Amino acid sequence: MIRVVLVGIEGAVNLGVIARTCVNFGVDELYIVKPVASLDEALNYAAKGRGFLENAVVTDSLDEAIKGVDMIVATSDEGYSESDMLRQAVDLSDFAERIFPRTRSVAILFGRESTGLTREEIGRADILVTIPANPAYPVLNVSQAVAVVLWELWKHRGMEAVNVPRKASRDLLGELLSLAVDVSRSVMSTEEKVARSRILWKRMLSKAMLTEKEARVLKYWLQRVRRQLRQDCLHE
Predict the structure, then answer these.
(1) Is the pLDDT of residue 80 over 80?
(2) Per the database record, which ranges form the tRNA/rRNA methyltransferase SpoU type domain (predicted)?
């Protein structure tokens, strides 16, 4: 299941074109968070996507827009940054080929035409995906970005292999993240470092595509590490 989430979309033309594109590539759901654009005006540009746009969920809450999916993906044109933990981006083609086919449901976040997604909104995602483009001018119009992302996913949709191990659930991955943060807090000197560690663990766990068995082994290991660290603190 693919859900497109448009955050603060500003242009009615873009919104209409995106709705049409969603129909082109078989998107299941469209959520629109705090739109600036007029939905009534956007209907004029939606063509065969008119009905799809009329059925879109309009909400003031990003929480509502990302609820109930296995993976949350943010998009950005800024690409990979080695120094910024929040921007450890995955190439779109890598995501589409390696991660997407093993994900049952995904929400893909697209930001405002003027400013994109905020750092807080990017931080809500499990993975940050970027579209490689000319470094001299890598910024795509949001409707273009949606089309490129959906086309890339369309090529790999329905290619999920049979007889593959069951993927770890979102709840189990959340437990792993909490354990990893607890361990980080025991060995790191500041909350700022713990926060950076949390982002790193969140990205790693999402990219790893752990099976349920692998996740449970890692959970057991992290629980043992946390227990040992707490015992060491008591004996100091």
Answers:
(1) no
(2) 2-151
